[in-house]
């Protein structure tokens, strides 16, 4: 599994690093994203810092050859998180994911969506949150998907999936892998993140976030301004 990534924090001079964090470990064949809960800054808790700590501790745990994802427990951690690890087997490869909250991923095969992870949320815009005052890791949904050479995995925080439909993501992947045009994974990441950013400021486009808001009896026009993290991975022979 090879991968590339891009991160676009929302414009906030007071918190230029934003609340998202991610990592790619080629050696351990593992990728992960975490979305810190920005609203907790009102209580003096920097969700972005804890998201970065979670991802850093995940990498440390991987390098220690742990059999399961484990992190040193901070005093308070509040964020959504999703981790993916590719396992090689004699009869095929499997992608294992552990997901908490509304970050997510798609598995794309031959230009179509093979699998899309569900959101973990109690109500509209209220996702599960890791933390001593919220949810503990036992709420993580464990997902297993069979993958094969050529499959594309798109991982992102809600800044991506609230602002882009699966069809838009598919179109970028299709364009980047058609005959005569072979965009790199990095180019596809940039194209995807830039479109998500554009949609987030568009007050008239019908985004997944605006559709979900209507279904919840609320009214939100256009996209949702947020931090945007995109990881695109490809399964190779």
TrEMBL record:
State the PROSITE patterns in the record.
PPM_2 (PS51746)
* Domain of life of the source: Eukaryota
Please state what the protein is called. Protein phosphatase
Q: Cofactor(s) for this protein?
A: Mg(2+); Mn(2+)
**UniProt family annotation:** Belongs to the PP2C family.
Keywords (alphabetical) are:
Hydrolase, Magnesium, Manganese, Metal-binding, Protein phosphatase
Keyword Magnesium among record annotations: yes
């Amino acid at each position: 599994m090879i991968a590339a990534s891009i991160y676009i924090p929302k414009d906030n001079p007071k918190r230029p690093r934003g609340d998202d964090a991610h990592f790619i470990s080629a050696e351990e064949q593992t990728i992960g994203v975490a979305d810190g809960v920005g609203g907790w800054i009102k209580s003096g808790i920097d969700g972005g810092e804890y998201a970065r700590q979670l991802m850093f501790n995940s990498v440390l745990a991987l390098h220690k050859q742990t059999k399961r994802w484990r992190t040193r427990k901070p005093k308070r951690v509040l964020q959504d998180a999703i981790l993916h690890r590719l396992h090689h087997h004699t009869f095929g490869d499997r992608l294992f994911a552990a997901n908490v909250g509304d970050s997510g991923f798609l598995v794309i095969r031959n230009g179509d969506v093979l699998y899309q992870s569900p959101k973990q949320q109690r109500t509209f815009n209220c996702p599960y949150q890791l933390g001593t005052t919220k949810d503990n890791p036992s709420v993580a949904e464990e997902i297993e998907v069979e993958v094969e050479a050529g499959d594309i995995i798109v991982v992102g925080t809600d800044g991506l999936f609230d602002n882009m439909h699966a069809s838009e993501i598919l179109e970028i992947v299709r364009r980047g892998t058609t005959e005569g045009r072979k965009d790199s994974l990095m180019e596809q990441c940039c194209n995807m993140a830039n479109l998500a950013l554009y949609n987030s400021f568009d007050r008239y486009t019908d985004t997944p976030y605006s559709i979900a808001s209507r279904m919840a009896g609320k009214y939100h026009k256009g996209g949702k301004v947020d931090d945007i993290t995109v990881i695109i991975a490809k399964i190779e022979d």
